[in-house]
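Quick one: structure for this chain?
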Amino acid sequence: DGNESFIQNILRIAGQLPFQIKAYKTYPNPASNVINTIVYAPYNTKGIYQIMDSYGKILITIPITVIAGDNILQADVSKLGRGMYYAKVICNIGGETNAKAFIKQ
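Got it. Here's what it folds into:
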């Protein structure tokens, strides 16, 4: 008859919001020996803390366990040359943080 009809089903999906880890700060900047990154995790999980060069090449990988709440992660960067680097956290649950830039003196 020319009339369009639509069938619409509304589904309610119960559950928790997706896990999302967040990096807030990387310090000291500039760094000499050790770099720290503060991350927030909604729950406990395992993952890795990575240090990359400006081309995205992974130079340091550290296995980590984060607990619910704020965490301070540390990496020894004393053997890296002077320049700009990036710190990033990748978790088994919750994806990854944005890379935080820092300068190595």
